[in-house]
Write a structure and sequence with these properties.
The protein is mainly α. It has 10 helices and 3 strands. The protein is elongated, with a radius of gyration of 23 Å. Pfam families: Rhomboid, Rhomboid_N.
Length: 280
């Protein structure tokens, strides 16, 4: 038996092993101190295996690798130690940058302050102004700070998950300054949309999340974001949720225009970047 590749976690090792199996190349996963070894016997087509492994290394998030696991529908007989994949939250957290973590921490701290009885104070100083004509220059920040507050734990957890997972990856790819500017722009577009179409009574990071999602989807379609592969169906799910919100079929209070405004602003960023790249 010989080792051709060592992977850091069992899920990736299993996906690659299943992809090789799909190409009629059998392998065995063995846990060692330095990671998960993919072992091959002497009768294996080593040259083809090496090519497929290189293919996996160049784009491990490609759907075809995970589809291979789904199609095989089989679990290897691994020890409990081998099957202990990294916790999802820990793995996602490791893929984030400093800005993503800091803003996530601020949002969490503000929610704790809300629970501690400071909601009125926070709404007074961070909420969207009731009348833009009376907004002083020193309070211009209130155009974006409603994104830092949340109405309940479910609202908070959902938005923080999307923020850490999506914004964290975008920060790694595009950098913290880009993420800061994109967050400010999408928040402003989302909040102004909700204010102009409904009222100033809204809170939450959802508009920014929709903006980043719209950007990631369109930038990917335009070939501007090859490093980030959105799982199939996410954009459809988010659009369906947006439609459900506008249809008001659920007894939920949602800032639908903020979601739409954020989404459109994210698409606009992706279009602007693509156009700017052509001129450069």
């Amino acid at each position: 038996m010989q080792t051709l590749v060592i992977l850091g976690n069992i899920r990736a090792a299993k996906a690659l092993a299943d992809y090789l199996h799909q190409h009629k190349i059998e392998s065995h996963i063995q846990k060692e101190e330095d990671g998960f070894h993919l072992m091959f016997d002497e009768s294996s087509d080593i040259e083809t295996a090496k090519k497929l492994i290189t293919e996996f290394a160049e784009n491990p998030n490609d759907d075809k690798f995970w589809t291979a696991s789904w199609n095989r529908n089989e679990v290897d007989d691994l020890s409990s130690e081998q099957t202990q994949a990294e916790p999802i939250i820990s793995k996602v957290w490791q893929q984030t940058g400093v800005f993503t973590r800091v803003l996530g921490g601020i949002i969490l701290a503000i929610f704790i302050a809300q629970l501690a009885g400071y909601s009125r104070f926070l709404f007074l100083h961070l909420g969207f102004p009731e009348n833009l004509t009376q907004l002083s220059f020193s309070e211009i920040y209130r155009l974006v700070t409603p994104a830092l507050m949340h109405g309940d734990a479910t609202h908070l957890v959902l938005n923080l998950f999307w923020w850490v997972w999506l914004a964290g990856q975008l920060e790694k790819i595009k950098g913290a300054p880009w993420l800061l500017n994109a967050s400010l722009f999408t928040a402003l577009a989302a909040h102004l949309s909700q204010y102009l179409m409904v009222s100033s009574s809204f809170i939450g990071l959802s508009g920014v999340v929709y903006g980043l999602l719209g950007y990631a989807w369109l930038a990917g379609r335009l070939g501007r974001l090859p490093e980030l592969k959105l799982p199939s169906g996410i954009i459809i799910m988010m659009l369906l949720w947006l439609a459900v919100g506008f249809a008001e079929v659920l007894n939920l209070r949602m800032a639908n225009w903020a979601h739409l405004g954020g989404l459109l602003s994210g698409l606009l960023i992706a279009l602007f970047e693509a156009k700017w790249a052509k001129k450069a």
